[in-house]
Fold these 2 entries.
Entry 1:
Amino acid sequence: MKLLKFGGTSLANAKKFLCVADIIEKNKNHEQVAIVLSAPAKITNYLVNIIENNININQALEQIELSEKICIEIIKNIKKIQSNFLYEETKKIIKTEFNQLQNIIYNFASLKKYPENIQAIIMSRGEILSIEIMKNILISRFHQVTIINPVENIISKGSFLNSKVDINASKKCISKINIKNDNIILMAGFIAGNNKGELVILGRNGSDYSAAILACCLNSKLCEIWTDVDGVFTADPRKIFNTFLLKSISYEEAMELSYFGAKVLHPRTIEPLKDFNIPCIIKNTSNIKSKGTLICQKNNSNENMLKSVTNIDDIAMFIVSGDLIKQNNNLISKILDILKKENINIILITQSSSKNNFNFCILEKDTKRTMILLNQLYELELKEKLLNNINIIRNLSILSIIGFNIFQKSNLTSKIFSSLGKSKINVLAISQGSSKYSISVVIKKKNILQSMQTIHDELFYNKTIINVFLIGIGGVGKSLINQILKQKKFLENKNIEIKIRTIANSKKILFLNNCIDLKHWEKYFKESKEKFNLEILNKSLKNNCFLNSVVIDCTSDENLSKQYVNFISKGLHVIASNKKANTSSLEYYNKIRNTALKENKKFLYETNVGAGLPVIQTLQNLFHTGDNLICFKGILSGSLSFIFGKLEENILLSDATKQAKDLGFTEPNPCDDLSGIDVARKLLILAREVGYEIELKDIEIEPILPEHFKKYHNTEEFLYKLKEMDAIFIERVKKAKNSGKVLRFVGTIEKGGKCSVKIEEINSNNPLYKVKNGENALTFYTNYYQPIPLVLRGYGAGNNVTASGVFSDLLRIIL
Ligand code: ADP
Ligand code: ASP
Ligand code: MG
């Protein structure tokens, strides 16, 4: 005998019902099967809505209508696929059930709250109907079916809504049922009966528990729980990235995992299976081939101790403090007893070492009742100040790490706390499970996803992940993606993984999930319908829960550069390939740095000067170790390096400029290059980097061309007019040549911070003498580097070198 349980997600529509019927048939070919079904997806939620406090009759009827619609839709479509399905009979049963439900609602409408026995009846209708539908599918496929009524046979104790099953009593009842060997056994999950024969339910998600009970009662050799994921993962795969399927876990681990919130199993499911030594497999109805996760008795000694990260949300923490706690040993046990009596589940307890502080966590929904109980219990003590006023912290979550003997795992707690620390998440309480299978921390609910992702990656994902939010996919952005793709394997060998989470340009944004292969990003980007604007970007960054997250700005958008402080405040690093932020006001320049310092995030911009040349980092290294700049001279523009190089080959200024433009060295209109402003901007960044507090306007620019050239916005016209300057430059070049010099467009920072950009005559001893053909060169005269300066020389523009500079900034985030 084998037991198979199918959850609501496996019964969401007609196709799924039929697929479940196929699985049942396949298994029946080998041995007798018993089937436990949950309600079709969503139905229990609608029914639960009915019993919510503030709902009026009409809203309740609406929920019934929605539930009925789902069921009718399911059977209609089953009939379409399986024509001999008993549609009319099933429809009649569905209609009757929902009519009865309507009557219940009219009868109890005058009450503020439905009595609990009625709540149980309302909530369990979905399961009853699942069984009716499945029974008729199986009958129409010519199977014999025995239905076990759980109210009569699954005997339980406790409240109407969260009952606990008496297995022995249930086993006795079930043994009395005459079940033929060739029959398929069907039973509604979630439902049981008390000793008065009244319907009770087993708590939300309780049909897993029903399955375990029936497996024990029927002496099944296996209990299969069929759901919508491949098995038990290292964390909820619907919430957390990079999770792994666990091949097998022990009963104890499964119990702890479900107790601490893994919804894949109801918390009470495993205990009976363990007692009867029945193995359990979690399987996926939508992926039958997957082997699933085996839960059984096992010796964990050779395995990874850590198994999963789980969470329970909507937690409130009670803080009971005062001298009485120290004096009265009974106080804590009294609290525990009274809450237990009232069916209030204490999920976690901590006590301070000074012993006058006792904290416990419960579900938020039980807060009011708990407060009333405590105030009644300690009325006198509170009055006499032996106990302080009881405090409650709400909106919390419990995050737990589950595994076998996890306390023996070296560095575990330090890893947990360091990853939470890096994400700036406060821990309000910590508890090590007495069972040695878990360690839990209490944190604010708003931080739960980020904390789980961070801790999960730290404990289970053997790689450091950098999460990239890329904006700008022009030449540099595209090259960067290609370089990241090319280096994937190389970085993997170093346990580094770069995950691009979003790619955007000024119009669109693509959110990359695990299903999108970065190789095909251009196709997906084309297909993306998501519009891009700062609001959408900020929203997605706000929800970002990854450690090591970086915004890379490969645009030239000034508005975006004004967001850097905001990004950093949200916990992201920022890499800028454009100079907008660093050449804006000194106030904003400092604000970015101060925020980055405060948030412990990086602002990197290596490519602002000299593209891929290691300029900024080299300067920072020098100055962090005590060097001082005496003076700087540099050729900071690739286009001007090219043009001035050509002049000494006796090429006319206008021709040299045209050539530079044709080779792609210049801005769309070369007038912008020749204005010298771009060189001034780079100089400003260098000057600020070495500590001079100056603005762009403080830089003296000696223009290459007279003022009136600025008015030629049309490139053709500009190049034509430029011929007017050819003769002047022939003269200047000649004059320089006569004294053994060449003309160079040089940016200078003098001692004291005076900055200028101008054409200079350079003699052959100067390192800048030979710099041409688009090369950049930067010469730093410092205390350590003199009289021979430190010289950085190489191409200072181009998509590939710039992208590689951005890439190296990216790796500096973690190195
Ligand atoms: P069913 O309707 O089949 O009972 P549930 O929704 O109750 O399904 O449980 C399955 C869900 O449990 C999965 O979709 C998944 O989101 C969630 N879940 C939570 N933690 C885990 C985990 N560690 N491994 C697998 N699934 C998990
Ligand atoms: N249908 C019930 C619920 O949604 C029981 C279950 O699915 O296990 O809680
Ligand atoms: Mg479930």
Note: Residues 57-81 form the longest helix (25 residues).
Entry 2:
Amino acid sequence: MTSSNNSELQEFKEGIDPFNLLPLWERQMKLMPGSHCVPAHWPYQTVRPLLEKSVALISKKEADRRVLVMENPSLRGSSFISQSLYAGQQIIMPGEVAPSHRHTPNALRFVVEGEGAYTSVDGIKMMMRPGDFVVTPNFTWHDHGNEGSQAVVWMDGLDTSFTSLFGAHFRENYSEDIYPVTHTSHHVDQHSESLIYPWQSSLDRLLQIPNSQMDPVHGFKLRYVDPKTGKDPLTTIAAFLQMLPKYFKGQTYRSTEHTVMNVAQGSCTLELGTQTYFLDTHDVMVVPSWETYRFLSKDGAVIFSFSDRSAQQALGFWREEYLID
Ligand code: 1HN
């Protein structure tokens, strides 16, 4: 290519700019796996006292949902924990009610501490206990309440980034605080079986996986599936429960999903790129797409996680790689 061509090309590029056009050949090489969000860690030791403080400063009624949103440090202002996911920590005190509403985003809860709270989904009232995983499908009416004597904390996960992406975020409040209860469930039955995955039965299943099926990266890992459909419980989000045995030293791995982890029991170390994170019980960690990581655990750990794998697989985008150390 001659230099006159180069300067003509430069002139051409500048000339097309006012028409909102740009040369793809200069951008193409920048399209690669990975996202703009960064790894981030929320120790429960930091978050718990701040939740407590929010209780003193704002009522559930004023707040509607008393939630501290975990926002990715590189996505401040977005309210997202990753480009594809939302996560928050919600605290509800004895006697409080979070009024009924519905919205197009799908939601999930993972109960962190406390007993006596419920979530009601389209009139199916489900009592929740620590470690329970509860689903609020797209556009179902839902309210929460605490009928016990302890503070209850859970992690919320939502796919609000998808409704934002598509411009399809609708929401409405119910006319009353509490949607009429048609069914109360203290254990899983035909009404609630696609909505609540109780801690003890999930843990029992995890402990039943034979040693020969331990994964070199993830340890023992289960993917929650809707018993009625055999599919992920939400259309966009997949959820998992995994156990790292004592003295686990995992293989290095990466995948295209964004994952939010919540340590249910024990502790582990996560080596992520050049950083090392110590994840204690109830800590939250977000692992962005295509970052390499591995788990180490001295004392063993049980980790709940949710990711955008459901959406990525539905669209045919999801990839993973087991890397040789
Ligand atoms: C929501 O409805 C809840 O129902 C929690 O508890 C967090 C974040 C964004 C949009 C809706 C809840 C939420 C939310």
Note: The CA atoms of residues 42 and 284 lie 5 Å apart.
